[in-house]
Prior knowledge:
CATH superfamily: Spore Coat Polysaccharide Biosynthesis Protein SpsA, Chain A
Order of helices and strands: EHEHEHEEHEEHEHHEHHHHH
Number of strands: 9
Shape: globular
Largest sheet: 9 strands, mixed
Mean pLDDT: 91
Oligomer: single chain
Number of helices: 12
Distance between the termini: 31 Å
Strand content: 15-25%
Number of domains: 1
Structural class: alpha/beta
Low-confidence stretches: none
Amino acid sequence: MKNSLSISVVTPSFNQVSFIQEALDSVRLQDYPVCEHLVIDGMSTDGTIELLRNLSFDKNCANVRWVSEQDSGQSEALNKGFRWAQGDIIGWLNSDDRYRLGCFDHVVKVFEENPDVDVLYGDYRVVDESGRVIQIRSEIEFSKFVLFYHRVLYIPTTATFFRRRVFDDGNWLDENLQYVMDLEFFIRLTANGYRFRHLPEILADFRLQPASKTCRNPDKQQREHKQVIFTSVPLLQSLKPKCVKSFTLLLFRPMAAVRRYGEKMLRGFYLRQLWSTYFDAHSGI
């Protein structure tokens, strides 16, 4: 396949020295010739900076550029990286996650064959702190209704790639958000007419580990999620009394769940997951 599209990967980093090497390796091992990896570190104190400095002595890491400076959090770090990125396609890879082999080839093929697609997201595996697979997540085709009203975000940032024009148009993460900046960003892009597409390939591993925000502060994450839904979803924006917003969300949320889980069931995602779990358990993987 002719590699005509360049790729930038942006990795926000803060005190994840135990995992960031795997993230770096997962980009390098794609063996994609027109790729840059941008690491935006928030002045880590755990050895991450020393690791990044040592990359300058590794000829296999010539495509890695990094900076370590004070920031207000993950959203600001990502926006720095998105502004810095030069690629036609831009990926968002957190420092404790990793790409699967062949990820870039799948992504580039879809973008080349579908010039109208702005945002591409794939399937992924959930892994534990040691990298052991916990679950395989096969996702649904893009649904604005599910995005707007489901209780969780079904588009995984670790397996999501953006066409450069999304950022050239001046779209950035809301730096006031700390937990669901991705949800607000996707809702805003959808409302502005950008096109999303699902790629039914396992592109990345999402790591659940004690230091991650997902594990540390689930209550804060849920509160911010509800706040973003109320202020970003066009219908809920138009409803003024908070009690009416709450009632509408209460009405639509179960419908969104039925829409998502019904599609997953009809497509046999749960049966495939059971089979994969059984296979891994009996193959020594």
